[in-house]
Amino acid sequence: MEARATAKYLRIAPRKVQIVLDLIRNQPANKAMAILRHTPKAACEPLEKLLKSAMANAENNFNMDASRLYVSECFVCPGPTLKRFRPRAQGRGMRILKRTSHITLVVKEAE
C-alpha cells in the first residue's frame, strides 16, 4: 500500500527541486523530515509540507503506521513556464523564463 501527495505549479525550477529530492529518496520518513529541516535550499520548505501531507494521507486514509513509513518514490516534472522580458542594452529585450514544477512524493510502509 502506498500514499502519495502532489504539489502542482510550484514557482521553483525543477532542477533546484531535483537536488533535494535526491537527498530524501529511499529514506525513512522521519529522517527525510530531518534532512529537509536542516538543508539550506529553497526547495526544502515546500517539500517538507508535501512530505507531511503524504504522511498524513498514509495515516488517515490507509491506516498505515507513521513510524514505519519511508519515501519510496519522489520525482519532479516541469510545469508551464512563464515568459517575461527584461530590458537590455541598446533597446533590446531578453526573455526571462520563470519555470514551475509539479512534484510527486510517495510513501510506503516498510516490511
Descriptive overview:
There is one protein chain. This protein has 111 residues and is an alpha+beta fold. It has one domain: Ribosomal Protein L22, Chain A, CATH 3.90.470.10. Helices cover 35% and strands 36% of the residues. The chain has a 3-stranded antiparallel sheet. The longest helix is centred in the middle third of the chain and has 19 residues. The mean pLDDT is 95.
What are the SSEs and their pairings?
Blueprint: E1 2-10, H1 14-24, H2 29-37, H3 44-62, E2 69-78, E3 82-87, E4 93-98, E5 101-109
Antiparallel strand pairs: 1-5, 2-5, 3-4
Helix pairs in contact: 2-3
List the main descriptive attributes of the protein structure presented here.
111 residues, alpha+beta, Ribosomal Protein L22, Chain A, three-stranded antiparallel beta sheet, two-stranded antiparallel ribbon, 3 helices, 5 strands, 35% helix
Put the structure in a nutshell:
Helix content is 35%, strand content 36%. It has 111 residues and is of the alpha+beta class.
Extract low-pLDDT stretches: none
Strand content: 35-45%
CATH superfamily, called what? Ribosomal protein L22/L17
Work out the helicity level.
Answer: 25-40%
Number of helices: 3
N- to C-terminal separation? 11 Å
Average pLDDT, rounded to a whole number, is: 95
The biggest beta sheet, please?
3 strands, antiparallel
Shape: elongated
Q: What structural category characterises the helix and strand content?
A: alpha+beta
Task: Assign the CATH architecture.
Answer: Alpha-Beta Complex
The number of domains: 1
Q: What is the succession of H and E elements?
A: EHHHEEEE
| Rg from alpha-carbon coordinates | 17 Å
